[in-house]
Amino acid sequence: MMPLLKQYIGFRQSTFLFEPHTLLDMDHFLLAPYDPVVDQAIIPDVQIAPNEVLGKRVEHFFEYYLKCPNQYSLLAKNIQVFRHKTTIGELDFLICTTETNEVIHVELSYKFYLYVPKVSDTDVACWIGPNQKDSLVQKVDKLKNKQFPLLHSVEAKTILHDFGITSDQIEQRSCMLGQLFIPFDSFNSNDHSFTPTINSKCIRGFWIPAAVFLSGIYKEERFYIPQKKDWVVMPNDGATWYSFEEISKEIVPHHTAQKSPLLWMKSKGHVFTSFFVVWW
């Protein structure tokens, strides 16, 4: 199976980080269930540069998904909104339903968050990025207070006028997909009791401190470090697997650069797991 197809399937098999209205007072943009026949039929038409970063790949995948069931037409994407020649924001997608002509503004994102209990006494504030540079709370705040209100700005209304529509005619929806990772001891004990607002189906694996991993807790397993553009892919048997000793050497450069690598682990019986070895 070609890498691009694996990435697209990974995107299509992803789900929403949280249930509707739990963190945003807004509906999700619902994706149809993954259909191998329908979805894989569009892959030959997907054109993505080899060096395209994951975020842009997800945008391409979403755009091709819109064409797949023929339920939507794309009006515009990545609409830059300017104020006095300065960018004040961007509208991800403006789409129209083919059946009802309803116009929808969709804000798309694909995030990876780790549950770190020591960060906050509030569960939702404990979900942070693997390099501690972003968080779920920050993302939700940006959506609620910047990205969605942008549609109703004077500058955006001027742009929408060119499409013959007004902001009042547009529904706004979030499409926040992603993967969640919990502490390795909670993952091993299957303890997900701390995720009341989060969709537990998004839990893909665990995170582990470097010192614990390097102590050899999983020294009998085999490992692979996927490129970030492959993070959406489920662990599989198509990779070249390395020993604990070999993979330990590969982790050091990532941590030196203050990056937490994602690893795939292959255990006996062809059991696959994703996890982050954090540098902090």
Describe the structure.
By secondary structure, the protein is α/β, with parallel strands linked by helices. The protein has 2 domains: 3-179, no CATH class; 200-278, Dna Ligase, domain 1, CATH 3.30.1490. Helix content is 26%, strand content 28%. The protein is built from 8 helices and 10 strands. The chain has helices at residues 3-12, 36-40, 54-67, 136-147, 154-161, 184-189, 210-214, 244-256; strands at residues 15-16, 72-83, 86-97, 103-115, 127-128, 170-183, 203-209, 222-224, 262-267, 271-278. Strands 1, 2, 3, 4, 5, 6, 7, 8, 9 and 10 form a 10-stranded mixed β-sheet that branches. The radius of gyration is 20 Å and the shape is globular. It starts with a helix and ends with a strand.
Defining key terms:
280 residues; Dna Ligase, domain 1; 2 domains; ten-stranded mixed beta sheet; globular
Number of helices: 8
Q: How would you classify the helix and strand content by structural class?
A: alpha/beta
Overall helicity:
25-40%
- Give me the count of strands: 10
Q: Which blocks of ≥5 consecutive residues have pLDDT under 50?
A: none
- The Rg value, from CA coordinates, equals 20 Å
How many distinct folded domains? 2
Mean pLDDT: 91
Backbone shape:
globular
The separation of the N and C termini measures 36 Å
Q: How much of the sequence is in beta strands?
A: 25-35%
Main beta sheet strand tally, sense and closure: 10 strands, mixed
- SSE order, as H and E? HEHHEEEEHHEHEHEHEE
